Amino acid sequence: MDSVTHIVCGVCIGQAIMGKKADKRVLFIGALAQSLPDIDALSSIWLKTPADLLAHRGITHSILFCLLAALVFAYTSAGIFKNQAISLNRWFWLWVIELFTHIFLDACTAYGTGWWEPFSHTRVSFNLLYVADPLFSVFTFLGCVYLFISSNSPKARQSVAWVALASTMLYIGCSIANKAIVDKKASWAFALQHKNVQRYFTTPTPLNNLLWFAVGQTDSGFYTGYFSVFDTHIEKMRYVERQQQLIPQLDKNMALLQQFSEDYYTLEHWHDTLVFNDLRFGDMAGWYFADPHFVFHYYMNLPDANDAIVQRGRFAHWDKPVWSAFIQRIKGN
Hints:
Elements lengths: L2 H16 L5 H12 L13 H7 L7 H18 L7 H20 L26 H16 L4 H39 L6 E6 L6 E7 L3 E8 L9 E4 L10 H10 L3 E6 L2 E11 L10 E6 L20 H11 L3
């Protein structure tokens, strides 16, 4: 999830766990604990883009890291706040819950999270939430603001924190239900159109949980399409060839990108540039354009031109007509 969501969730969790012992300094600890796994962002300073993609949400998002970090920082916090009569046990549970909440929320997105590192490089992706979803974050954001400006009783503040956190759990529950609906529509689409699909996934489109992007893999390529929770009929899906023959020989970056993409990738030429597409991040306004590029595109023969690779295509070409078509597509066909 985005950094703001982690911070406001961290504050609300800190208040819920610490109760009347949660002064504003403790709330800052909650925000820090919830943000700690993203320290791996520093790896971009020395790693090239393909290696950095795998380092992010890697070892610092593992179960092992969360347990070890909780032990270390629980002792540290108990020492710093020794005059507040907060037990070591409560500090441990604060850090454990904060850290595990972080890696759970990240696993709800499409990026992939290394829960099992360093023992296995298999990543966990539930594809339940878009990385930035205002409706998911709004109640914890409001709760966070309230907790920092309110001087009400600890009981009232704790109630607000629990209500804010309950809203996120309810939203995840609705996301699970929406995904079940969309998965059923996607499986129907593949069956009705006689697609020889070996595996598929669905993931939310930007900023919402009602319109989803689906990708189905065949022997030679992928079918992609959009499904709204409110759709009443199945639309024709787009087919994209993988173009396996374009794979550069003995390219270390290619091997890393294949691993990162979990094999959901295609290759294509943009003029004289070979481009690697990771399909898990969707395409550029495919509900509006007939043959859009994919959001995640890596220039194979221009490795130094791949900064901000995950973000750069997310809102490309989003002008007023595209936004309008997006809203209409959410409403269903």
